[in-house]
Every structure is written in C-alpha cells, then in structure tokens.
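Title: Comparing notes on inverse folding

I've been comparing how different people in this forum approach sequence design from structure. To keep things fair, I'm posting one structure and asking everyone to reply with a full sequence. Here's the target:
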C-alpha cells in the first residue's frame, strides 16, 4: 500500500474532497431535471439518487476535517459512554454512513467529553433515541469536536438537514 507523506504539488485531503464535491455537484446537475436539482431527469433517477448520496457523503467527510480553529463536525450515533479510572469522560461515536447503524465495518471514534455535557446527555440520550426511532425522526447527532474533546452535541432534526 502506498501513502503520501508529503505533497510536492499541494495535494491535501481537503483539496481532494473539495474537487470531488465539485465533480459530484456537476454530475448531479447533469442528472437533474431543473437547475435547483430537486428532481431527476426521466430515466436517470438511480444515477441522480446515487449522486445525491455521494454529494452528502463527501460533504460529511469534509466536515470531519478540522477547520482553521481546529473544529470538526461529525454526524453519528453514540455507541457507548464511559468514565476512565482517571475520572475523564469518553464517548464512542459511530460515524453515520449510508449503511445504517452498528455494522462490523462501521467507523468509530472515541472522544473526550466534558463532565457537564456527559451529565446532560447520558441521562437523556437513550430515551430520546428510542422515541425518535418510534416517530421516524432522525436518530443521529451533530457532534462538534475541538481537537479531541466534544464541546457541543445536538440532534439532527430533519433527515435532509444540512450539517
């Protein structure tokens, strides 16, 4: 397996993903019936739907790259909460992907979480999660991370909400 340690040409993950999203946006426009890209051309519904998913996936990957302040945004479900022997609080987050929930190939991240957020969320997360499943509401969270610590969490309120 080859890897890139240093780029002589200014290639970065962020730059590559930005180019990918431009290409996918172009493809989506080509498969769309109108300039708003709200519906597919006749005979292109599979390509249009696939491309819409790819745009969302690339955008999600871009959001996970830290910005200039070191802040990343993840979308996912809490897999588990725990407290270390040293008294630090941790969250294991399953990153959302098109294949829904808790598969062996899911991507997981472990983040620190402040004691305050831990105390707020650990008590209400499971009941709210189950309620959302019953009501067919989004059961995923938007998680803002600075360096390795979660500093903000909120429920996604709409399946098509921009993250």
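Reply #1:
Here's my take.
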């Amino acid at each position: 397996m080859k890897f890139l340690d240093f780029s002589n040409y200014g290639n970065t993950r962020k730059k590559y993903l930005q180019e990918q999203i431009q290409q996918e946006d172009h493809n989506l426009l080509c498969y769309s019936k109108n300039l708003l890209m709200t519906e597919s051309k006749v005979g292109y519904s599979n390509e249009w739907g696939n491309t819409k998913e790819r745009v969302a996936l690339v955008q999600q990957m871009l959001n996970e790259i830290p910005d200039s302040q070191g802040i990343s945004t993840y979308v996912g479900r809490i897999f588990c909460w725990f407290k270390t022997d040293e008294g630090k609080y941790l969250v294991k987050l399953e990153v959302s992907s098109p294949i829904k929930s808790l598969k062996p190939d899911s991507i997981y991240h472990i983040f620190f979480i402040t004691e305050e957020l831990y105390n707020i969320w650990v008590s209400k997360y499971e009941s709210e999660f189950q309620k959302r499943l019953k009501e067919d509401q989004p059961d995923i969270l938007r998680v803002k991370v600075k360096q390795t610590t979660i500093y903000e969490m909120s429920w996604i309120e709409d399946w098509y909400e921009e993250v």
